[in-house]
């Protein structure tokens, strides 16, 4: 699991996440700041796993998660709301914002084991 797709509407958080993932040895191969681009990228791009912001400008990222489930792509949620959106799989790792590098590392390890 090396190539990561980031779905995050906050540019600064997306940049921080990309830097942190790089520090951990991952490569961000794609990112999307909104639901429409996230759905298109999730459908047409090759990657190993994804990190999804729960809320994209007030819209749920659950449609992206469902598409990733269909493709068999693992993902985790990053959220300031404290939990994954209603209707999502209950066993997914949830990374609570703000997070530290060590927390991201642990979440990625849990994702790889899932």
Automatic annotation (TrEMBL):
InterPro entries: Bact_response_regulator, CheY-like_superfamily, Sig_transdc_resp-reg_receiver. The modification 4-aspartylphosphate is found at residue 53. PROSITE patterns: RESPONSE_REGULATORY. GO terms for molecular function: DNA binding. Pfam families: Response_reg. GO terms for biological process: phosphorelay signal transduction system. Keywords: DNA-binding, Phosphoprotein. Residues 3-112 form the Response regulatory domain. This is DNA-binding response OmpR family regulator. It comes from Rhizobium pisi. The lineage of its organism: Bacteria, Pseudomonadati, Pseudomonadota, Alphaproteobacteria, Hyphomicrobiales.
